[in-house]
């Protein structure tokens, strides 16, 4: 089954410059070291994801978006190793990152992860309102704090093959661990902050949830070969196979059907945006912020779906064998000598 994606397709003209900037930034923070790591990472084509998801950004902002996306994937891959089976150690790895967004990070030895994320948070939150910063910090905390629970799920599956979470548990954890809420915060960061009455309206809250869930569901289909063999049970295809006692093809079709329903629901809700703005008597500036935010949600979905179908990240050439998790140098280990250029 292929998704019907009636979203406008546009790509930023700054993709090439974002690619150059991103490699420089990653290497300056020690996130990529060695030709093997760079070659593997290049197959993912993260600048293409950013260029498709944020087609209207200038060169500097597209560089920030690309750095952000690269951080998610490289950070997530740290838990493909044995570390991903040790929940308490995952807590220790994520705690400094939670501290960074709340301004509580103490000076000390930096790892590539803490260094790069501190730079991302500074660049992302600079000039934003206290309301946006508080919400974004909460969403980042949710993202980092979901990883220990994922580790517990992997550990339980390793101990008991019959341990598979139910749908409610899956959704609760997946919505934190996939980090999409922080991506949606950046849509507002790159466009304009949405007035609270509109942001928290049922229409926009539902649109936001659908824009987060539909890509996550689709990703479970594409990432199955990467996740299932290593015991990741927080994958909806895995869960449906267990619940329905069916094969992968049937479970995958069911997951994609749900993603398509979400896309259709999003489009129906988007039609209500003008009336919402009228009834709230929003100013011209506020209305434009709401419209740009809704357009940004649609661009994010369309861009992600297009990239996901093209990237090699979920193909054999873009992912190491499951029995060789150490494909990238560990990035959570503190290093004594490092000189990151945070202005890149």
- How far apart the termini lie comes to 41 Å
Second CATH tier, the architecture? Orthogonal Bundle
- What ranges have pLDDT less than 50 throughout 5 or more consecutive residues? 321-328, 336-344
Q: Strand percentage, roughly?
A: under 5%
> So what's the CATH class?
Mainly Alpha
- Over all CA atoms, what is the radius of gyration? 20 Å
How many separate domains make up the residues? 1
Indicate the CATH topology. Farnesyl Diphosphate Synthase
Mean pLDDT figure: 90
> What is the H/E order?
HHHHHHHHHHHHHHHH
Number of helices: 16
User: How does the major sheet shape up?
Assistant: none
Structural class: mainly alpha
Q: Helicity, in percent?
A: 55-70%
Fold topology:
Layout: H1 15-28, H2 35-44, H3 46-53, H4 59-77, H5 87-101, H6 112-125, H7 130-159, H8 167-177, H9 180-190, H10 196-199, H11 202-222, H12 224-227, H13 236-244, H14 248-270, H15 273-279, H16 284-310
Helix pairs in contact: 1-3, 1-4, 3-4, 3-16, 4-6, 5-6, 5-7, 7-8, 7-9, 11-14, 11-16, 13-14
Structure description:
The chain has helices spanning 15-28, 35-44, 46-53, 59-77, 87-101, 112-125, 130-159, 167-177, 180-190, 196-199, 202-222, 224-227, 236-244, 248-270, 273-279, 284-310. The chain is an all-alpha fold and 344 residues long. The chain has one domain (15-318): Farnesyl Diphosphate Synthase, CATH 1.10.600.
